[in-house]
Amino acid sequence: MLTIQRPAIDPRLDLFAEIERLKRELNAVILAHYYQDPDIQDVADYIGDSLGLSRQAAATDARVIVFAGVHFMAETAKILNPTKQVLLPDLAAGCSLSDNCPSDRFAEFLRAYPGHIVISYINCSAAVKALSDIICTSANAVAIVNQIPKDQPIVFAPDRNLGRYVMAQSGREMVLWPGTCIVHETFSERKLIALKVRHPDAEVIAHPECEPAVLRHADFVGSTTALLKYAGTSDRRAFIVVTEAGILHQMQKAHPDKLFIPAPPEADCACNECPFMRLNTLEKLYLCMRDRTPEVTLDEATRLRALTPIERMLAMSPK
Ligand code: 13P
Ligand code: SF4
C-alpha cells in the first residue's frame, strides 16, 4: 500500500496562531463537539452537541468546514453542504453506534417491519440515513417521536439506550436496533451510588446514551448542550457528570465556582473518554487544514437520499 509521507510539523510553530491564520486563508470554520480535546475546543468557532453542530453546518457561509468530531458528524455536514470542502482531522474517527449498524444489515432488519416509520439517531452512516425517514439527535428525539401519530409503528436505531429512554418519556413502544455507545455503556451504577454517598449534595446529570440502570439515578437527563445549560441554571454547587469527560472543559470554564465530578466507568480505565473522538489532536487539526486532507466525500445518490430525513429533523426540532 502506498503511504503518503507528510512533511513533519516544525516544532517552533505556534499551532494556535497557525490554525487562526489558516482559518482566514481558507475561509474555514472549525466546528467542534464537546467531546474533543480541550485544546481543540479552544480553537473552535463553534462548540456544540450534534443538533447544534448540524444547525451550524446548515447555516455556515464559510468555504471550508473543518469538523472536529467523528465521521458521521462530518458526513452530516457534507450532506448539508455538497459544494463545500469538509475536512476531518482523522478519517478513522468512527463511532461504535454507527460502525455496528452497517447499511446492508439494517436494510435486512427493516424488511421484518413493513409499515414502520424509521427514526434514526444521527450517530449512523449516510447509507443508514438514506434508509431512514427522520433523523434525530439526543436533543430532539423525544420531541420528534411525540410528533408521530399514535397509531404509527416506529423502528428506532441504532442506540437502544436512547430508544429505551425515548420510550419511557413518550410512552410509545418502538422496535429497537440493538446498538450501544461503548463509552456510555461503561458507566457503573455501583460506583455512581458510591460517589453519590460521598457527594450527597451533588446532582447527577447524565446523557441518554447511558444504560437505564444508570439513568434511574439521574436528576437531569439531556444532550451535551442540555447538560451544560442545566449546570448553569441549577442552583446546586456540585454535579456528577455521566457522559464523555470532554464536556467538563466547557462546564468548568463557564462555571469556575462549581464542582464537576466525572462519573466513573466500571473498570479502572479512561473509558469515559471516547477513543474515536480522541483520535483528533491539535496537530492533526493543523495538518488537515495545512494539507486540505483528509476530506469527507459522498456519492450524490446517497447524499440526496440522506438529506431528506435530516431536513425533516431540522424542520421538526423545537427551536
Ligand atoms: P449529543 O451531541 O447529542 O449530546 O450526543 C453525544 C454523542 O455521543 C455524540 O456522539
Ligand atoms: Fe459514538 Fe459514543 Fe463516541 Fe459518541 S461517545 S461518538 S456515541 S462512541
From TrEMBL:
Iminosuccinate binds at residues 33, 50, 121-123, 138, 207-209, 224. GO terms for molecular function: 4 iron, 4 sulfur cluster binding; metal ion binding; quinolinate synthetase A activity. This is Quinolinate synthase. Catalyzes the condensation of iminoaspartate with dihydroxyacetone phosphate to form quinolinate. The keyword Cytoplasm applies. The gene is nadA. It catalyses: iminosuccinate + dihydroxyacetone phosphate = quinolinate + phosphate + 2 H2O + H(+). [4Fe-4S] cluster binds at residues 95, 181, 274. Keywords: 4Fe-4S, Cytoplasm, Iron, Iron-sulfur, Metal-binding, Pyridine nucleotide biosynthesis, Transferase. It is found in: Cytoplasm. GO terms for biological process: 'de novo' NAD+ biosynthetic process from L-aspartate. It comes from Gloeobacter violaceus (strain ATCC 29082 / PCC 7421). Belongs to the quinolinate synthase family. Type 2 subfamily.
